[in-house]
Amino acid sequence: MIPLLEKIKSSFVYMDGAMGTLLQRRGLGSGELPELWNISHPEIVRGIHAEYLRAGSDIISTNTFGANRIKFPSNYREIIIAGVNVARSAANEFGQDRYVAFDMGPLGKMLEPFGNLPFEEAVSVFADSVKAARDAGADLILIETMNDCYETKAALLAAKENSDLPVFVTNVYDERGKLLTGADASVMVAMLEGMGANAIGINCSLGPAQMLDTVRDICTRSSLPVIVCPNAGLPEISSTGETVYDVDSDEFAEHMRTIAGYGACILGGCCGTTPEYIAKIIQKTRDIDFSAPVFKHDTVVTSYSRSVSVGGSPVLVGERINPTGKARLKEAIRSGDMSYIYSEAIDQEERGVHILDVNVGVPGTCERENLLSAVKGIQSVTTLPLQIDTSDIDALSAAMREYNGKPLVNSVNGKEESLMAVLPLVKKYGGVVIALTLDENGIPDTAEGRLRIAEKIVMRAEKLGIDRKDIIADPLAMAVSADRNGALTTLRAISLIKEKLGIKVSLGVSNISFGLPLRDAVNSAFFASALYAGLDMAIMNPRSDAMMRVYYSSRALLGKDENFQDYIAYAGAAQGDTAQPKAEKGELSTLREAVIRGVKDRAYSMARDMLSNEPPLEVVNSHIVPALDEVGKGFEEKRIFLPQLLMSAEAAEAAFEAVKEAMARGGAERGSDVRDDNRVLLATVKGDIHDIGKNIVKALLSNYGFTVIDAGKDVPPEKVLSLARENGVRLVGLSALMTTTVPFMEETIKLLKRELPDLRVVVGGAVLTADYAEKIGADFYARDAMETVRYAQKFFGRV
Amino acid sequence: MIAVRTMSAAPNEALPDIREAERYLGYGKNQPGDDERRMISECFSAVSAAVSYRCVYTMTDVSRPRDGVLDLGFGNIESASLYRHMSGCGRALLFAATAGRGLDMLITSLSSVSPAKGVIADALGSSAVEKWCDLIEKRLLDGVPHVFRFSAGYGDFDISWQKNILEYLSANIKAGIYTTDALMMLPTKSVTAIVGIKTE
Prior knowledge:
heterodimer, A: TIM Barrel, TIM Barrel, Methyltransferase, Methionine Synthase (B12-binding Domains), Chain A, domain 1, 4 domains, eight-stranded parallel beta sheet, eight-stranded parallel beta barrel, 31 helices, 25 strands, B: alpha+beta, NADH Oxidase, four-stranded antiparallel beta sheet, three-stranded antiparallel beta sheet, 9 strands, elongated
């Protein structure tokens, strides 16, 4: 038998068509599970495989689309083994060079963070399926009909970790060329190639005519053989009550010929296609000259829905999520204050960066845990790709594994220890890695020395099978205050590395000005020179107007901004910013008023001004809290409504932020310790994924001076208990939105009351009533967020 | 045997209704103030840009195996409210619709920096998916006499049917709509519905 991986590089390979459609024609009832027929009707399944083989399919896929541990907890293994066996016995009859693909479809559950299936659980379910198929002797794994980038990653990871078989992956794209979760071909090609799939492509959802553009897009980006298996058009019910599709085999094959012309070389069908369709495809494409896919040299980093290509227009990496020299961020990381980290992420995105650096290394904390939750959390609030920035290999490995997309990794260097640790992770999880030009002997003084280290890293990566397109050299900007030739050496190294190695180059720009006054001036001048020298990517601070000006103007000057479009848009916005805001907010005269009206930035600046004259506690108790109280009363009297209540809460939060900063400057790193006696633990109960109500309560409680420990949503009773214990909490707030999740609320209360009898529980949520709350053992039912605040105030004896 | 089709719409074809969202936010007959109005209008633009409308649907016969029981192809539904509601309907449009995951992400993202924007976007999102359902009905049943749409969870039509409907329509594969074990819809701004078509 010709190894499949050789065959796909030398000729067209034909897959099969629909299984379900044919099973239905042979009596599979609606609502009956097709996979069970591997056991109950193996002769029929075998017959369908044989028909496809007779039509000319080189690869037949097993009848195991939904055969996984979630759908068939007790017998998935048996179903898979039977499925592989029956396909194998059919293939054997057709002699050599016919391959059995283990067909693996989606799990039918949405993954975290948008759903509630944990990534590792998905990997483990796929892994069990892969092991069964491997043991049964499948020739390859076919991961198909995947509409979620993250689930595709879980399946591919499971396939690679549990077998040595070739892996083919096909996704479902819509008419606009996107997965349901937003990824387009550029994202999927980059991620799947990076992780080591052997062939990739598209199946299901559309007929061949509607997928032409997407197929062409995949073919122009992919270095791997491209698979295309369309539906036979759209389904309709015929006059005899049968489901029929509106593209017949001739029309279908005609389109497949066009598709083969684009460069797709593994062809087959999906819903509605039959052996006749496959035979016609073969007939129509037989005479086309085969050409193997051409290797593409694009350097691409992605999130789950957005890709950034490095090497064209310069790429900006926002450096703000890095605790070095930032007391407030350090405190946020220590206390797990994710919303502060999110706001940094969103702010940088709004300022126009393309990638976000994420570094959460703070001494005395678990970096693995922090990095993992930061990466996952940030991916739930922004679609920008991330640069995972850590020297902790364990943390890097965990974050790369659970990252949704193809990450940028910061960094590897020329030291043996670093090469050995980082490069295998890049190979396994796929990624683009920044290569720092330093090694055991430090940072070379010359551009040539830095080139040599970059070259060494490239060689070592290539030895592991990582292409140089996935290495971005960083020739290191060193403080010019220490070496007056430092900038020149780095600039020369940029050109030299690009010329000699043909790889992309990045710099952490801000280092250059270390130790100098007016750093922005030096940074931006250096940035302009580096861009001229060919810099592809810069790690920088997007809050610096000087840097952003250089970025937009240099792009335009270097011919990378057609018609100066982006520059003009930037200039327009920058000029507008300085002209507009004051008039609108001018009439606010006091902090109290700013909080009541909910004007965040004014509340912050007024509090900051006030703090230079008044002690923090005075600002809180005489200005912020009375304002909040007034709004709270208005809400209770139905004069003020929820949005206004929350806007005030946010303005108060901004004022508190100024207070925290003042206290951090005064040496109290943990900020407002006055609040620590009043800890309230909040959780949305198990099964419940709507946390908007809990978040409202959280916003108000924190502004009324309570320390809120936010356990999140979908929290199991045991976790609520352990958090309550760990934090010595006396008051817990639970939220549930649905009748189906209220039972978990009851269970949580029972557990808490049994283990911590002195604890009080306040509950809220759309379907609760005071009577029901009492029945399930809650101490108080809060109709809205203000009632929770009032209860908490009473409970802690503050009123 | 069913023929399940998918459909989508551009965001501007089903814009959220601001008045409806204000009702969800508890304003009742009151008007929001200027500051709130500014924020609502900002969120309106963001929500309108974040929705990604999809739906999966089929037209199906309605049979009545016995009194009080309906069969639309995915099991015998014992629900007095639905049975009453579907009286005179021999066919039905069955669909699952969503405003998409990007909207959930927007709501999460806004909530994390501004709880006020979070609740406003949430209310606008609820209105958006209702408008999308209205559009689906208009596109598929324009001029066809029908009753108003009915969802699992209304009256005594048990909410657990949501799962059966989604499975029957392969809604997870075709439209990216799922339920959790606790029967919550994902993306959160999603709806399943039955629209009875009058045949008598």
